[in-house]
Amino acid sequence: MTDAEVALVGGNVNAVVRAGDTVRRTAGPWTPTIQALLAWVRAHGVDGVPTPLGLDAQGREVLTYLPGVVGQGPEGGWVWPPSVLRDAARLLRAWHDASAGFPRDGAVWRLPAHEPDEVVCLNDVAPYNMVGGDGGLVGFIDVDMASPGPRVRDLAYLAYRLCPFAEDASAPAGIHPSQRLDDLVAAYGAEDGPTADAVLAAIPPRLRELAEWTEAHAASTGRADLRDHAAMYRRDATRLAAR
Questions:
Q1: What does the alpha-carbon distance between residue 112 and residue 141 come to, in Å, rounded to a whole number?
Q2: What's this model's pTM, rounded to 2 decimal places?
Q3: To 10 degrees, the CA torsion angle through 152, 240, 237, 149?
Q4: Element spanning 62, H or E
Q5: Stretch 125-149: mean pLDDT, rounded?
Q6: What distance in Å separates the CA atoms of residue 61 and residue 41, rounded to the nearest whole number?
């Protein structure tokens, strides 16, 4: 018997469904690289990401389903405790350390690589790509945007979304972004990782690049609503650059 497919909503890029204990998503030229990357990182001790399972008969990428709910929307309040912030930083550090040795020859990436090529960045690590619940963080999903780059690039976007510094963040009262940034950096590894100042300085250029990508995606898909996202990224870039 074939498992019934249930659409997973919330994404702005791919068509994604759940079928039993698997997730099926649109594949592309980058999919073999991403599947190899996931296998590599998991083989190096990182289990907080899906297991790659190849392609299905329809040519879709198949991954294991991580149980839980995404960290946005009505059920996403689990992301705001300090313990989840620290666990996200530690999981990102583990991913970075494991990915540093991933072979780059022949790799195809969906997004451009950035120098210095220190690690393979997730490029979109944020509450909407985090899965968990009352027990805390389970893992990261939707890693098909990954590409080589500097550690601070990923930390900057995670800080933007989870500390948070984003205009559209729905963080509860009593959240202090600057203090959470210090905690994020400390959990990632303050001794040899980027400083809080470096992470904060990396957010505006990251947002400007994201605004350009989002505008192009809006034009190619006819998603006019995405232009509002791009405008927000530009406003936030300007505001944070002035800090």
A1: 20
A2: 0.94
A3: 0
A4: strand 61-64
A5: 96
A6: 18
